[in-house]
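During the reporting period the student researcher (J.K.) took over the structure-prediction task from the postdoctoral fellow and processed the backlog of single-chain submissions. One of the processed entries is reproduced below for the supervisory committee.
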Amino acid sequence: MQSGSQFTVAAKKVFIAAQLDARFVARIAADARFEIVGELAEAEILVTRAHVRVTRELLAAAPCLELIAQGTSGTDNIDAVAARERGIAIVSLPGENANAVAELVIAFMLMMTRTIPQYTEELRRGAFQRDDCATRHELRHYRLGIVGLGEVGRRVARLASAFGVSVSAFDPYLADADFPARHAARTPSLEALLESSDIVTLHVPLTPETRRMIAAPQIARLPRGAFLINAARGEVLDQQTALDALASHHLAGLALDVYDPEPPPAPLPPDPRLVLTPHVAGCSHECKAAIGEKLYEKISERYR
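J.K. obtained the following structure tokens:
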């Protein structure tokens, strides 16, 4: 619209489909370049997170959409092919939640190896049982295997190394020289990593290559009494096979932050060796604040 020699540019309409830090919402609302709307059909910018499925059908309901701004690192929840066909850009925040995820993984390791949930349950029942406490090991006793040595895997390796843990990793997309700087020794194959690890933690994106990459054959390669952690994507692990391995005592502990599907449709076993969180590994006050700040910056850069 032209008024004399002045031009007024219409504000870009923003639909926020996921809970984000209040400061992000406040900054978008205060920026004259943007207008928050309550209908997806009006949106030119869709702000979302990994738990929102951005399907072809959802995109069809947003005919004006030109940008998807994802407040997480992974974008497997977005139909990228459908977006590309429409010329819709996608921005995300790789690595922003890495520290939060890595800290929870270390917490999982400590909870399982020191059987903290079991002690908690016993004390709630009135049992003060400590006679076998010397059978639990410190983390330095264990060999940690990391599947995927990206931002999260690297931070897990660094934190685990501080405990004196022996850390190895499998990541075919990294050069040999990358591993020492990421606090891990290279293992040449997934099979070799599984066979030589007491604790295995998964940190790969969901792709056709990684879907069900840890299933019955892979779990069978783990030493009896191993611990398994999945804080990546639920579809990376054959969850039922892992639960079966826990029930048979092939696994000594299983920690899940992600599921397939989410939320899991049936009650999970009431086993203190099974440590569960509701897909919150990448969620912390600091992480949400940083994501809100960086996401605003990424959106703002595209509309300078």
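The committee noted the following: The chain has eleven helices and 14 strands.
J.K. will present the remaining backlog at the next meeting.
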